[in-house]
Amino acid sequence: xxxxxxxxxLSVEGFPVQTSAGEQxxxxxxxxxxxxVVAITTDRRLVLVRQHRWGIEESTLEIPGxxxxxxxxxxxxxxxELREETGFAGGTWTALxxxxxxxxxxxxxxxxxxxxxxxxxGAPERGPGEEGMTVETPALDTLPELLTSGDIDHALAVAALxxxxxxxxxxxES
Length: 174
Prior knowledge:
The chain is α+β, with helices and mostly antiparallel strands. The protein is about 20% helix and about 45% strand. The strands form 2 sheets. Strands 4, 5, 6, 7, 8, 9, 10 and 11 form an 8-stranded mixed β-sheet that branches. The protein has a 3-stranded antiparallel β-sheet with strand order 1-2-3, with no helix packed on it.
């Protein structure tokens, strides 16, 4: 596939696809996998981050996460991202599965994990572009309102948080 554009975080490929309207050029974004963490403290608070997102030119409230480095295990990447972005670590970790990030044009997945009983272990160790990030720890019982109000509207964060809520409902039913 011819590479139309290359950048450290993605490459864009163009390729012909035969459609009912004839041959069309489709694009695929080749990107590394991502990870997201639903982190809950020992005193039942969510660990969230607020950061500027250049795509929408706004600040968003979301869960910690980031890129899974080449050859890195998604769980280890999630633990690293939580520690780097928030300073929280530890706890008991459970996989919440993975979702395709945007299968219409992207080839990557987002791996989701639940970390229960995390504790503040030190200062965040943020990378370039994360300097303005802040940590917020609302009470866990505010999660449904944060989702329904749109305060948390990053689609991949919403997916992970809803997986967590569904898992919680199933656990209560059994």
